[in-house]
Amino acid sequence: MGDIYIGETEILSKQTIFKYEDNILYLYLDIIDGPNIVMDEIYKGIHVASVEKHPLPFEKIDGFLLDDARRISFYFDKFDYGYLNKFNSNGSTFVLKINVFNFIIYTNNHYVSKVSSITLYSKCFQKYLNLVPNLRVNPIENGETNGEVNFKFESTNLKSSFVLNDKNFILTPTYKLHWSGPEFDFTPGLSLEFDFLCDEKELLMLSATLIKFIQYSYMRTNVFPDEIVFSLNSGFAGNVYLFNPNNYEEEKEKYDIFRDSLPWNELYKIAGSLFCEFYNDNIYYSHIPNQKIKRIIIDSESISKDAAAFENEFDKVFKNGIPYTDERKKMEEEIINELTPLMNSASTKKKRKKYKGFIKHVHMDSLCDKIEYALEIYEKCINKIKNKMETICNLKLSYEDIAEVCSGLRNGIDHGDKIQDNNTDKVFPSFVILKGLIYAIQLKRLGMEEDAIDDSINNLYLIKNLPLVN
């Protein structure tokens, strides 16, 4: 059960009470005014539900909370709503129920037009950002102790400055600290700093992009901040609340020694470029699993998604396909030169179409060819994860083996090709290596060094019950 917010807004020039609870906004409208919004009027004052759902005449609702007059703004899909008539002793009320996906609460009732930073806070960021307080305790007489806590972190100096749409940004680790007597509450965060006029839509877009950035860093989408705050130069200005569809809890580990994310001390060097890729929707992301354990679970869905992610990223880097040798190019040219006259002189349209298909397939790289070529090119970036998988599974994998297993299974699932059963022991390690290869292509394209990529991908597979192998 989440927080409940009750307030007042203006609908059809009338003050209207609202209640927000569990991602649903309830608007309590007049029994006459309410139907005017979502129904067809067939006669004066008589409304019926339309065959096609009407869009709401607004895409956001602004209001004020009754308890403290803070301003609140709700965002939603104009078609994602329902309604009902609610009857009571005082008459009837038309209740409009809207599914909300984002909302913003300001610290007061003033509109904020210039935001200087957005910060995502979460306890789970400690190892990701290397923000772990250094606690030293010394025993003294009478069974008592004294000690000190060090809150100096090298990571706060590892900042990424970049330009997006001609505007300057800085990504930097930060933290908030609250003392209560001898106890303290420490929460690390990742802050996006900027200085330009920022409306609410841009605020939401930047916040959502920052969440994708962090989820990519963890290779799972169930990483979500405990709190999203936006600030002015003068201090705290409000909170952003984004709907989290992947709220899968990870198993709590008594001794969590693992850093199952891309390490910030390397990631910060390309963080700006990576953020821009997500903002511009230029990086494949939909194959990321929703839980840590699913990085090592191979099923039909993950096979299709991983293959699609690989081809998408491969084609961005190798726009003209696999660069073949001059001998191969000459052979292709000879074949095309022989087929072209036959196509042009074909007696029927059907024959010409077939010849055209033959010519098209002369230089068409298969998924198997692409994977094998990429494994060779990015060999230094996936060395540790490949060695880890071979050690765990007690087998040796050639690049040809990996490519054939991955492409064969994808083709079987997506195209109905016959799947060979003699490679079942190679499926798990091959697809884990393919997942690492996708990250390798993306990270190298953005400028990360090969050794750092190798270490970073290995970090993603420091998973409980998976042996620690380098």
Order of helices and strands: EEEHEEEEEEHEEEEEHEEHHHHHHHHHH
Tell me the structural class: alpha+beta
pLDDT average, as an integer?
84
Largest sheet descriptor? 6 strands, antiparallel, barrel
Report Rg.
28 Å
Helix content: 25-40%
Morphology call = globular
Terminal CA distance reads 43 Å
DSSP summary: helix tally: 13
The count of domains is 4
The strand order across the widest sheet is: 1-2-3-8-7-6
**What fraction strand?**
25-35%
Number of strands: 16
Contiguous runs where pLDDT drops below 50 for at least 5 residues: none
Tell me about this structure.
This protein is α+β, with helices and mostly antiparallel strands and 470 residues long. The protein has four domains: 5-102; 114-139 and 147-279, no CATH class; 293-322 and 365-460, no CATH class; 332-364. 35% of the residues lie in helices and 29% in strands. It contains 13 helices and 16 strands. It has helices at residues 33-38, 125-128, 200-218, 264-267, 271-279, 300-317, 326-344, 349-360, 367-377, 383-393, 399-415, 424-445, 450-460; strands at residues 5-11, 14-21, 24-29, 39-43, 46-49, 60-65, 71-88, 91-106, 114-121, 134-139, 145-150, 160-164, 167-180, 183-197, 227-232, 235-242. Strands 1-2-3-8-7-6 form a six-stranded antiparallel beta barrel. A two-stranded antiparallel sheet has the order 4-5. A two-stranded antiparallel sheet has the order 10-11. The model has no long low-confidence stretch (mean pLDDT 84).
